[in-house]
C-alpha cells in the first residue's frame, strides 16, 4: 500500500452498525480506498474513474456538515453509507484536502456554480436574475400562455360561462330593465350596425341586454358575447353616442376574449402560487393572486379602449364622447329618494371642463397602479383626445 498517499480521518456510518467506525479515506494514484483506522484493513476500493458515480462529495458551504455519501452506483452493501467529518474539527481542513486531492470532475465545490454560491456577489447576481425571470414571466409569459390556452378553448365554453354568470347576476344585482322598449331597440340597432361596419366579414355575435341594477351606472361584458348595459348609465349620460362608445369598449372585452383569458391567467397564477406556498392558507396566496389579476385587468382595459376607438371610427362617432363619459362618471351622484321613497333618476353635476379641452395627464402612481383594476381616468381621457386629434 502506498504510505505516501494522502489520507483523511473520517467516521463511517455504514447503516449496519449503530456506532460510527473510525476510518481513513485514502486517495492513491488509481483509486480511493476506505481503510479501517485501527487495523489498516481495506474496506472498500473505488477506481478513480468511478469515484464521481459512486461518491457524492459535499459543497464547501460556510456552514453545514461535511458528509461523503456512497451512491446507488457503489457496491450494493455500501449504498447509502456515509463518511462524516467530525463536527469538532475545522471544516476548512476537510475542504482544503478535498480541493487538493479530489479531481474537479468528482468535487462539486470545484465548479463555478459552487464558487458563485460561496460569494455574496454571486448570490446577489443570481437573485437579481431570478427576480428578472419571474417578473418577465409575470409581464409577458403568463399573458402569452393565457392567449395560447384560450385559443384552444372552444367558444361554446365562453357561451356556457357567460349564460351561467348572467343568471347569477340577475338573481343578485339586476332586475328587469325599466328603460322604454323603443330606447332599448334604438340603442341595440345602432350598436349592432356599428359592429357590422367594424367587422363586415366576420361579425361577432353579440347579445345586448338591458337591466336595472343595484350597482348604479355600469356596463360589462361576459364571456360568449353577452353584454349588459344598465338603465342607470343610459339615464346618466343621456347621449346615445356616449352609450355606443361605452358599448364599443365592452365589445373589445368580447372580441379579445378577456373574460376567458382572465380566468385562465388567474388559474395559472393560482396553480403556481399553490406550488410555491403549498397549504399555508388563503391569505398568503390570495394577495399576490388578486394583485396580479388586477394588473392583467388594467392591460385588458387598455386593449378594450383601443377597440372602442376602432368601433367609434367605424361607426362615425368622435372618440371625444368617451371623455364626456368619464366626466359624467366622475361627477355622478347616487340617486335620491322622492317623497314616496322611490329612486329618482341618477344625475351628474355639469362637467367642470369641456371634453375637447386638453388637460395635464397625471401619471399613475406606483401604489395606485398595483391596487387598481383600471388605469387612471386622466390617462384614458388623454388617449381618447389624441384619437380624436385633440
Per-chain topology:
Blueprint: E1 7-13, E2 21-27, E3 31-36, E4 42-47, H1 51-54, E5 55-56, E6 67-70, E7 82-84, H2 91-101, H3 112-117, H4 120-152, H5 155-172, E8 174-176, H6 181-198, E9 207-213, E10 219-222, E11 226-230, H7 231-237, H8 240-255, H9 258-277, H10 282-315, H11 320-330, E12 332-333, E13 347-348, H12 366-371, H13 377-387
Parallel strand pairs: 9-11
Antiparallel strand pairs: 1-2, 1-7, 2-3, 3-4, 5-6, 6-7, 8-9, 10-11, 12-13
Helix pairs in contact: 4-9, 6-8, 6-10, 8-10, 8-11, 9-10, 11-13
Describe the protein's architecture and organization:
- With 390 residues, the chain is of the alpha+beta class.
- The protein folds into 2 domains: 7-110, PH-domain like, CATH 2.30.29.30; 153-387, no CATH class.
- Helix content is 50%, strand content 15%.
- It has helices at 51-54, 91-101, 112-117, 120-152, 155-172, 181-198, 231-237, 240-255, 258-277, 282-315, 320-330, 366-371, 377-387; strands spanning 7-13, 21-27, 31-36, 42-47, 55-56, 67-70, 82-84, 174-176, 207-213, 219-222, 226-230, 332-333, 347-348.
- The strands form 3 sheets. It has a 7-stranded antiparallel β-sheet. Strands 8-9-11-10 form a 4-stranded mixed β-sheet, with helices on both faces.
Number of helices: 13
DSSP summary, beta strand count: 13
Q: Biggest sheet, open or closed, and with what strands and sense?
A: 7 strands, antiparallel
Integer tally of domains: 2
Q: How much helicity do the residues have?
A: 40-55%
Structural class, by secondary structure, is: alpha+beta
**Poorly predicted parts:** 360-372
Taken in chain order, the helices and strands follow as EEEEHEEEHHHHEHEEEHHHHHEEHH
Average of per-residue pLDDT values? 80
Arrangement of strands in the largest sheet: 4-3-2-1-7-6-5
Global geometry = rod-shaped
Strand content: 5-15%
- Rg, Å, rounded: 35 Å
Terminal-residue CA separation: 93 Å
Amino acid at each position: 500500500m502506498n504510505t505516501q498517499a494522502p489520507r483523511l480521518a473520517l467516521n463511517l456510518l455504514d447503516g449496519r452498525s449503530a456506532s460510527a467506525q473510525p476510518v481513513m479515506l485514502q486517495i492513491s494514484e488509481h483509486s480511493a480506498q476506505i481503510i479501517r483506522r485501527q487495523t489498516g484493513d481495506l474496506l472498500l476500493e473505488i477506481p478513480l474513474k468511478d469515484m464521481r458515480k459512486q461518491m457524492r462529495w459535499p459543497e464547501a458551504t460556510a456552514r453545514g456538515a461535511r458528509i461523503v455519501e456512497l451512491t446507488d452506483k457503489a457496491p450494493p452493501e455500501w449504498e447509502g453509507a456515509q463518511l462524516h467529518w467530525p463536527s469538532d474539527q475545522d471544516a476548512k481542513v476537510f475542504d482544503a484536502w478535498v480541493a487538493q486531492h479530489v479531481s474537479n470532475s468528482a468535487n462539486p465545490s470545484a465548479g463555478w456554480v459552487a464558487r458563485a454560491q460561496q460569494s455574496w456577489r454571486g448570490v446577489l447576481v443570481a437573485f437579481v436574475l431570478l427576480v428578472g425571470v419571474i417578473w418577465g414571466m409575470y409581464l409577458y409569459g403568463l399573458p402569452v400562455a393565457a392567449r395560447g390556452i384560450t385559443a384552444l378553448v372552444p367558444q361554446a365554453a365562453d357561451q356556457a360561462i357567460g349564460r351561467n354568470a348572467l343568471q347569477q347576476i340577475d338573481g343578485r344585482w339586476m332586475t328587469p330593465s325599466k328603460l322604454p322598449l323603443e330606447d332599448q331597440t334604438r340603442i341595440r340597432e345602432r350598436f349592432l350596425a356599428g359592429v357590422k361596419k367594424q367587422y363586415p366579414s366576420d361579425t361577432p355575435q353579440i347579445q345586448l341586454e338591458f337591466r336595472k341594477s343595484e350597482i348604479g351606472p355600469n356596463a360589462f361584458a361576459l364571456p360568449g358575447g353577452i353584454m349588459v348595459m344598465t338603465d342607470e348609465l343610459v339615464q346618466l349620460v343621456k347621449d346615445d353616442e356616449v352609450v355606443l362608445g361605452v358599448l364599443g369598449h365592452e365589445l373589445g372585452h368580447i372580441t379579445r376574449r378577456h373574460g376567458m383569458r382572465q380566468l385562465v391567467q388567474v388559474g395559472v397564477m393560482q396553480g403556481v402560487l399553490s406550488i410555491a406556498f403549498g397549504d399555508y392558507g388563503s391569505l398568503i396566496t390570495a394577495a399576490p393572486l388578486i394583485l396580479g389579476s388586477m394588473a392583467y385587468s388594467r392591460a385588458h382595459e387598455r386593449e378594450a379602449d383601443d377597440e372602442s376607438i376602432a368601433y367609434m371610427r367605424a361607426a362615425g362617432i368622435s372618440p371625444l364622447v368617451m371623455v364626456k363619459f368619464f366626466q359624467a362618471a366622475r361627477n355622478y351622484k347616487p340617486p335620491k329618494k322622492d317623497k314616496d321613497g322611490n329612486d329618482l333618476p341618477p344625475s351628474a353635476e355639469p362637467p367642470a371642463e369641456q371634453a375637447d379641452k386638453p388637460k395635464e395627464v397625471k401619471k399613475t402612481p406606483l401604489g395606485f397602479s398595483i391596487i387598481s383594476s383600471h388605469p387612471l381616468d386622466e390617462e384614458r381621457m388623454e388617449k381618447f383626445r389624441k384619437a380624436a386629434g385633440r
